[in-house]
Specification:
GO molecular function: metallopeptidase activity
Number of strands: 6
Keywords: Disulfide bond, Hydrolase, Metal-binding, Metalloprotease, Protease, Signal, Zinc
Bound molecules: arginine, zinc ion, calcium ion
Family: Belongs to the peptidase M43B family.
Organism: Flavobacterium aureirubrum
Protein name: Zinc-dependent metalloprotease
Mean pLDDT: 93
Shape: globular
Distance between the termini: 23 Å
Length: 277
């Protein structure tokens, strides 16, 4: 294994009441504690998924051969990274209290968009209410000057969630209630395209998703097909629907490939020097 890279994360609950930040008792204190614990649950899911320690990876591995019986040539990606809720302020001054977790309440991050200059150097997560059935979105391999992934209140983290007052509630909702929307969005943040980004053509390294060990196709997959039941529109071969960069349900995606991990690490190396404590 390689050295672990620390990923300092800040979580912004934009639709929560700002008064949660200073609450010392009562409902607001318990809601703040609930939301901080919910953020930690999401961080734990990201760490499992990006380090291939997720329990449902047993769906992939054939106990006889140690690799997939359906995709024998495909290896599992392992990033050797550690997502952590940051506890140190950065030089530009975010208002984060030194030593306190980087979790904000009612802060209108980037006026609702996915960039806020005050949060440079962090891997930001913006939790807000999205319309039109969008679960989340992310820039593709951005610089670290304040960009973040954005996720709807109902698809952040896992478990029973935190009921607040009205729009402040954050309730993981099936079938996207295992925190995998953020696994997917951080894949984009780390410069991955969708696995269904088109036919690879002559050069798999520069067309389709530009990753050679993900089977090419140009159609996304939904819900939860059997592992060997979906076929490429380009080649007729089986598609890797269980990959985090497809559109299946949370319970049915459980792996990155080694080629995806290599591409993500290459992007990480371009921003490494900008990462703030
Ligand atoms: N549709 C979203 C996107 O393209 C996210 C899909 C996440 N899928 C999931 N099972 N959580 O970024
Ligand atoms: Zn996507
Ligand atoms: Ca590919």
């Amino acid at each position: 294994a390689n050295a672990i890279t620390r990923i300092p994360v800040a979580v912004h609950y934009t639709t929560s009441s700002a008064s949660l930040a200073t609450a010392t008792s009562g409902t607001n204190l318990s809601l703040r504690n609930c939301l901080i614990a919910l953020a930690q649950t999401q961080i734990n899911i990201l760490n499992a998924d990006y380090n291939a320690t997720n329990a449902d990876l047993n769906l992939w591995t054939n106990s006889q051969t140690g690799s997939s019986q359906f995709f024998p040539g495909v290896g599992i990606g392992d990033m050797d990274i550690q997502f952590e809720i940051a506890t140190q302020n950065h030089p530009l001054g975010s208002g984060l209290a030194e030593g306190q977790p980087a979790v904000t309440f009612g802060y209108n991050f980037g006026a609702g968009q996915n960039r806020d200059a005050n949060w440079t150097g962090y891997f930001n997560i913006v939790v807000r209410s999205l319309s039109g059935g969008i679960l989340g979105f992310s820039p593709l391999g951005p610089p670290l000057n304040g960009f973040g992934v954005t996720i709807d209140n109902n698809y952040f983290s896992s478990g029973t969630g935190c009921s607040g007052t009205g729009s402040g509630s954050v309730i993981p909702t099936a079938p996207f209630n295992r925190g995998r929307t953020l696994t997917h969005e951080f894949g984009h943040f780390f410069n991955l395209d969708h696995t269904f980004d088109g036919c690879d053509g002559a050069n798999c390294a520069s067309s389709g998703d530009s990753v050679c060990d993900t089977p090419q196709t140009d159609t996304e997959t939904y819900e939860c097909p059997a592992a060997d039941a979906t076929f490429s529109t380009c080649t007729g071969e089986q598609v890797l629907t269980m990959n985090y960069m497809d559109y299946v349900d949370d319970a049915c995606m459980y792996m990155f490939t080694t080629g995806q991990a290599t591409r993500m690490t290459a992007w990480l190396n371009t921003v490494r020097s900008q990462i703030r404590p």
